[in-house]
Amino acid sequence: MRKLSFAYETSLSFSAPVTDHRFQLRCTPPTLPQQRICDLSFEMDPPCALHTGIDSFGNPVTVGRIADPHDRFSYRVEGIAFVDQGLQRPAPYKPLYRYPSAFTQPGPALLAFAEEVRAGLAGRPWTTAPLEQAAYVMGAVHDRLAYRPGSTTVRTTAEEALAGGAGVCQDFAQVAVAVCRRLGLLAKYVAGLYDAEGATHAWFEVYQGGAWHPLDPTNNCRVGDSYVKIAHGRDYGDCMLSIGVFTGAADQSQTVHAVVRNA
After folding, report:
1. What domains does the chain contain, in order, with CATH numbers?
2. Distance between CA 82 and CA 40 in Å, rounded?
């Protein structure tokens, strides 16, 4: 078990004042069998009335509306997490994680890569368990994609990232999820934080033995006690940490900063 302090902050700047700003945030790490969240704080500017709930994937959601004109919007989440990935608990079988989703729909590049991976697994007849196969997928994705910030956007699909040969953690995770599903495995996308300073992170989980097991294709490793999970879903589209709409003809710029340290 590790005790971690974490902080996550997003700031939006608008080129002109906007109004009727409606937003939905998935930025609060939940308490789960493998992580206990303590001393959680949430700050937002400008302040407004907030409503909290749980979405269909079990992720905490915060929604609100800022009616008055404003040219900035920021929020910050921080707290303490006690993490022990060995404390997995039984989870129900959910077939929706077996099928392609909007960001993981396969095209020519993914179909060809999945067959390449399938052939590689055929040469390893002892690699039959879902977690073993997913670990092989993880290594194949890590070797195939180059980590290149700016080469993709948040709207890039797994097919597009693989065809381009480069991406960031979101792309590594979505390509791995797409390939796992082609192999008949149940796989989900995960958004969160890990023991580093900079941006948020993404990885994936595979279902085996009635539980979900996390893997990080960007770093080609099993997810350990230095990771803090925020949200999960079929792909990035199900667990965007922030999304919103507003009234006004304004350009916007965004900065994100996250940090996780031993507490």
Report:
1. 2-85+241-262 (2.60.40.2250), 95-238 (3.10.620.30)
2. 12
Give the largest CA-CA distance in the chain: 63
Are the CB atoms for 145 and 172 separated by under 8 Å?
Answer: yes
Distance CA 123, CA 176 (A): 20
> Minimal CA–CA distance to 231: which of 223, 244, 222, 241?
241
Look-up of token digits 């308490």: 31
Q: How confident is the model at residue 249 (pLDDT cuts 50, 70, 90)?
A: confident
Instruction: Concatenate the DSSP letters of all residues of 9-35 into one string.
Output: EEEEEEEEEEEEEEEEE---PPPBTTE
The 10s digit of each residue's pLDDT in 200-244 is 999 999 999 999 999 999 999 999 999 999 999 999 999 999 999
Assign 88 a pLDDT band (cuts: 50, 70, 90): confident
Residue 195: pLDDT above 90? no
Paired tokens of 37: 């969240």
State the sign of the Cα–Cα–Cα–Cα dihedral 34, 38, 43, 44.
positive
> Going by DSSP bridges, is the β-strand pair 197-198/2-25 parallel, antiparallel, or unpaired?
unpaired
Dihedral Cα 29, 3, 134, 241, nearest 10 deg: 20
